[in-house]
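@channel sequence for tomorrow's demo:
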Amino acid sequence: MTELAPIQFTDGKDAGALRTIGEVAKALGIRQHVLRYWEEQFAMLRPLKRSGGRRYYRPEDITLVERIDRLVHHEGYTLKGAMKALQEPERVSAATDAQQVAASPPLSAMSVNFAMRARLISLRATLVNALHEA
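structure tokens (generated this afternoon):
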């Protein structure tokens, strides 16, 4: 599993400040309706909601969104697979990850096809949801 660099906001706010859904969406390059959908799908993603239903994301919410984004959009997980991966305990260290990758056999054409298929299914679901929300 490759780690992406944590998002660095350039909005002048403190690192621990609450951020709106628009700020998070812009910083991560994820559309707001996708973030709302992920809230429905991932029970652990619960930003604060203030009057009028306005969402405010805490730093830990943003970290979780980054992890979901990495799993779904960069590693080809389905939403169900990403949910399962998030519920498993984190691996001990990046060194352990590197050892596992070095020891693993090269990817077969079948596993590459599976990852591509999972990614396409995820994209299709995102498009279908976007069309239904429009």
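heads up for whoever presents: Residues 19-133 form a domain with the Multidrug-efflux Transporter Regulator; Chain: A; Domain 2 fold (CATH 1.10.1660.10).
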